[in-house]
Structures are given as structure tokens and as C-alpha cells.
Amino acid sequence: MEQGDNQSAENLLVSSDNGNELEDLPVKERCFEQREALPEEPRCVVCGRYGEYICDQTDDDICSVECKTILLARLAAKTKPATKEAKCVNLPFGDESFCITDNNFPNIPTLVASRITALRSKLDICVKGEAVPDPIMFFSSCGLPEKLVCNLETAGYCMPTPVQMQVIPASMSNRSLLVSADTGSGKTASFLIPIIAHCSRVRSHQCTGKLGPLAIVLAPTRELCLQVEEQAKVLGKGLPFKTALVVGGDPLAQQIYRIENGVELIVGTPGRLIDLLMKHNVDLDNVCIFVLDEVDCLLERGFRDQAMQIFQALSQPQVMMFSATLHSEVEKMSNSLAKNVIRISCGNPSRPNKSVKQVVIWVESKQKKQKIFEIMKSKQHFKSPAVVFVSSRVGADLLSEAITVATGLEVVSIHGEKRMNERRESLTRFLTGEVSVVVSTGVLGRGMDLLKVRQVILFDMPNSIDEYVHQVGRASRMGEEGMAIVFVNEEDRRLFKELVQVLKTAGAPIPRELANSKYTTGVSLGSGRKRKSRSRP
Ligand code: AMP
Predict the structure, then answer these.
(1) Which of 294, 299, 302, 307 is nearest to 329 (CA)?
(2) What CATH code would you report for 139-346?
(3) Is the CB of 162 inside a 6 Å radius of any atom of ligand 1?
(4) Which residues does 421 contact at the CB level (< 8 Å), separation at least 6?
(5) How far apart are CA 159 and CA 161, in angstroms?
(6) N or C: which end of the chain has fewer CB within 10 A?
(7) Do 139-346 and 356-520 have matching folds?
(8) Which atom of ligand 1 is nearest to the CA of 447?
(9) Tens of pLDDT along 195-243?
(10) What residue owns the CA closest to ligand 1's atom 6?
(11) How far apart are the C-alpha atoms of 139 and 235, rounded to whole Å?
């Protein structure tokens, strides 16, 4: 193995199992690429996953370059005194160099300026705007409360995801942001972490009296709000940080009671929050962070005016807007809410997550049920837990019953007409593995954290290609592999052109009927079409 100053962090790992050098093996860069350890196997000293490598500098078991970096940074923090001279250390992502500088966080490596562009380009981070703060490599790099950093570790967040690397420092410098990122990229924590840091800083300096809420997050669905609030509670545990969930389906009186007793963060849907604010006087003067999550969906669902109404009741807060897809309406909204906005995009948000394999099947409407039964009975094709998306509420109930009868699988349905408690219970049963399939309308398509989903079946095509991207994205979280099976037929012709474009970009096969449809004309099918016609008898 090469030794020397310019070694990359990858070269500093040696294989623990057989002593082979790693030149011809792909070294796992990120912790989430590594599998869980089997009972007899070594475990990574940082995250507990399979300790595939030994760190050459410490002899510890380690799962990836990412965890090695964290391990070395922790050791550096423990052993080295702060120094005024900048020192370079090697960290992941190729040969990027980092400096240990005499700033507020003396033992935390920060990026050397010349490497920032390279890091952004490697991680697919694009930024636009004046004086955009540098990305961070560690949660501890931007002065978060110690307890918050501890909570992040307990939640298994070893290192920021790319979107977090850029959004957290930008947000902590009080700038307004418009962020687009792949589904499942860690967007939620990227706005919750600065909110929690801000709230606990304010509360710890406040002597007495109530201040009213300090931050508001608006999201388009109850489920998404529920999930954001739950993540906020996990990350804010043990800090002066309380939350209120303001969504329909739960009694308003309880929500008012909670806010009256003092909360730092309100997470809600725009309609219910307006309702509450009209009926009850809530002091919003100290709200200085306003987040719109899934802003394109908020607009599609007609929440624009309500979101604006809430914004106008605040005193010029910092605004953070998040969306998997950005279009002109979103840009317009952003311009009317804030000036000097930083635009951040991570990955390619208008395409489904790269880790999802898209399989589009041409199925006539009458044959759809039969087809889904066949898939779900097939050991080879069905991967549970799975989410099936349909277009109507009645359809969700009927299909879930039909699947249970035809396959014997445990299935639940979720849609907007179900009571909140029922939805919560079904989701919990699904997420804990008690049921293996959930049939849902679009309510589950947006931002829902279905960590364990391996397969998504689009029984009905959604209304827009944006919605398609979201639903397909449910099959993979944090880069784990997943599969989306999509039923399509002539009735979906309005989306043919865009669908073919999405499939082409992903390198996914295009069914013959779709490729040859007159509604697909105008889209270049490139070599795919030539191959198809050559292989025909
Ligand atoms: P989101 O895109 O916000 O829906 O997040 C997707 C999933 O990633 C959620 O399960 C989060 O708990 C998880 N997650 C967020 N940030 C990190 C991180 N830095 N490391 C590991 N997991 C994370």
C-alpha cells in the first residue's frame, strides 16, 4: 500500500478479513453504504455497522471512509491542543484537504477554500447567491449545542448528508433559502437542526416570561407534519425545545392548550393553522424562522394565499423553502417572500432518486388488478414492505381488500378521508412491519419517511410528472436500493412525453407501446428506438 503525505483517506484503510489490499475493491465511502454486522462480525467503532476495514492509524474496526474520518476527528479533538497555525489533514471525497484553524471551533477541520468548489461538484451541490457560506463536513463545525450533536449521534446521523452540509451553515448565517434536493436526502433535518439550535440559544438566554413560538414549519399534508414534528422531538430531546402539531383531525382545543403553555416550534398545515390563529390570539412576534416544506405541493394544493397570510403575520422572518421539484411558481413565491435568497440544489431533483430502478409495464386498466396480484404472489418480483399508489380514496380501500383476498398478505389503506387516528395506526403497523403493504392515495407520496420501503407500485399514474418523481422516490431513502413498478396505458397519455424523458434519463427500459405511441412523438428515443426496431423479427 502506498504511503506518503498525499494518500487519500481510502488508502489508509486495510481489509480486516483477509489482509488483501483494497486497490481492486471498492472502498465504501459513506457509512450508509455499509451493511449491518452479523452476530460474529466486527462492528464499526463509530456507527456499529459491519467493520469491514481496520483503520491503519488506530487499529479500530471501521465500516467506511466516512466513519474513519469521524474517528480521527474525534481523536484529534481529544488529544490536540488548539493551534494558531493551520494544519492540513486528509479527509474523504478524493484528495480534498481540510484545515484545522484557530476559529471558534479550534479542533474541527474546516475546508480549505480552494477545495470547496471541488467538494460541491463531487457531491452535486449547486449554489447561487451572494456570499454563500461554505459547506461543513461535521455537525460540530457550526457551534450546535452539545446536546443536539449528541442527539444526532444517537439518531445515527454520523455525518451531514450533502444537502445538510450546505443548508445548515447557510441557514445558521440567517440567510433565506430556496432548496431543491432529491427525495430522502435528509432535507427535514437540514431545517430542523438550525431551528433547534436557534431555539435553545434563545431560551437559554431568556430570563423569565413566555416568548411565544420562535419558528413555524408549514407542510402540505398531516402525515408530513406529523413526521416533521416527530423528528423535531427526537433531535430536540433534552433541550429547551417544545413543539406543537397543528393539523386537522386532532382537536383544536388541545392544540391551543399546548401553544398557550409555551412551545418553540409550530408544525402545521396552512388551513388548520389559519383556523387556529383566527380563533385564538397567538403571539407571533418572535417567530424568526419560517419554513415551507414541499413548497411546490403546497402551491399545487392551493395553499399559496394561506401561506402568504401566515407569513404576513410575522415580522420579517428568515424564510427557508424546500421542494423536491422547482418550477416558475415556486420561484415566484420565493421572490415574494424574501430578498437576497440563496438557491441550493443537491442531486438532480427533477429526476427520481438514482437508487430506484424504474420498471414501467403497459397494462390495460381492466387487467391491472390481475397484474398486481401476479406480482405480489411472485417471490421473484414482489419485495415487501411495499407501497401501492392509487388515484382515488375508494380505489385505495377496494384494492387493499382485493389484495388481501387474492394473496393473503396483510394490507392497510391510507387516504384523506380516514380519521387521523386511523391513519396513524395504519402507518405505525406498516412501519413496524406488522403489515407488509400499504395502499395509498397521494397523501403518502410527499416527503413521507418510509424508511423500510423496498418497492413502490404505481397502480394508477399520478396527475403530474412531479408527483411521479415523488412517488417513485418513496422506494429509496438515503441511497438504499429500491424498485418502482409503474402501470401505464393509453389513459395516461397526457404524461407520455415527460415520462419517456424521465425514463430515458434514468436509462430505464421503455415499453414498446409507450415508445410507439403517437403521444410520445417529439421525444427523441435515441439509440433505444434503433435497438428495438433492429431486434424485431
Ligand atoms: P428526509 O429526506 O428528511 O425525509 O430524510 C430521509 C431519512 O434520512 C430520514 O429517515 C432521516 O432520519 C434520515 N437522515 C437524515 N439525515 C441523516 C444523516 N445525516 N445521516 C443519516 N440519516 C439521516
Answers:
(1) 299
(2) 3.40.50.300
(3) no
(4) 249
(5) 6
(6) C
(7) yes
(8) 4
(9) 999 999 888 776 556 678 999 999 999 989 999 999 999 999 999 999 9
(10) 184
(11) 13
- Quote the pLDDT of residue 73: 73
Q: Which three cell numbers stand for residue 484?
A: 418502482
How confident is the model over 400-428, as pLDDT tens digits?
A: 999 999 999 999 998 877 776 787 778 77
The HSE-up count of residue 274 (CA atoms within 13 Å, CB side) is 13
Kindly give the distance from the C-alpha atom of residue 402 to the centroid of ligand 1, in angstroms, as a whole number. 34
- Ligand 1 centroid to Cα of residue 369, in Å, is 34
- Please report the pLDDT score of residue 235 as a whole number: 97
Is the model's pLDDT at 54 over the cut of 70? yes
CATH classification number, 356-520, choose in 3.40.50.300, 3.40.50.2000, 3.40.50.620, 3.30.470.20: 3.40.50.300
Expressed in angstroms and rounded, the spacing between residue 449 Cα and the centre of ligand 1 is 8
Q: How would residue 446 be classed by pLDDT, with cut points 50, 70 and 90?
A: low
CB atoms within 10 A of CB 240: 17
For every residue of 276-301, DSSP letters joined together read HHHHS----TT--EEEETTHHHHHHT
pLDDT band of 97, cuts 50, 70, 90: very low
Cβ–ligand 1 contact at 477 (below 6 Å) = yes
DSSP code string of 507-530: T----HHHHH-GGGTTS--HHHHH
For 108, counting Cβ atoms within 10 Å of its Cβ (0-12 exposed, 13-18 middle, 19+ buried), the class is buried
